[in-house]
Design goal:
Oligomer: single chain
Number of strands: 0
Order of helices and strands: HHHH
Largest sheet: none
Helix content: over 70%
Strand content: under 5%
Shape: elongated
Distance between the termini: 47 Å
Number of helices: 4
Length: 150
């Protein structure tokens, strides 16, 4: 089943990268959001590149069960302060999906005693956790103005 999770992880990282870029462009008036979302999208691209040799080694295959939870990129950006926090919430949910999928791959890597995969997971998983912390902080920062003033 590791090939199934590797495929899920690759698709989730792609969706997260695309979503970060979408939010960056849609909320370009917020310079910190624009620049940091671009940076985080590049991290996701790097995670996908780091997965390539792992997928080459273990393969990837689609799951034959119906997908109840899957990674979909953000398709439309909302406007205004409330739109920003809602878009950040969407990123947060998607980043959590990526985070939990890395956790599952880590458990498999530990079970396999695959040192190379453990190294890849350690670096990528740590960066996703930092992404989640930034998203949480930025939502906290934006919420008072968006929810009280707007």
């Amino acid at each position: 089943m590791l090939p199934v999770y590797l495929g899920l992880l690759q698709k989730a990282e792609q969706a997260l990268a695309a979503s970060y870029r979408q939010v960056a462009e849609g909320h370009g008036a917020e310079p910190d959001v624009y620049h940091l979302c671009q940076t985080l999208a590049k991290q996701c691209d790097q995670h996908e590149q780091a997965l390539a040799p792992v997928i080459e080694r273990y393969g990837e295959r689609p799951d034959d069960e119906p997908e109840r939870l899957h990674a979909e990129k953000i398709s439309e950006i909302r406007s205004g302060p409330v739109g920003l926090i809602r878009d950040l919430q969407d990123l947060y949910l998607l980043a959590h999906l990526v985070d939990v999928t890395w956790m599952m791959v880590k458990q498999a890597a530990l079970g396999l005693r695959d040192e190379k995969l453990i190294e890849v997971v350690a670096e990528c998983d740590w960066q996703v956790k930092v992404q989640l912390r930034w998203l949480t902080t930025r939502m906290k920062q934006a919420a008072p103005q968006a929810l009280i003033v707007a």
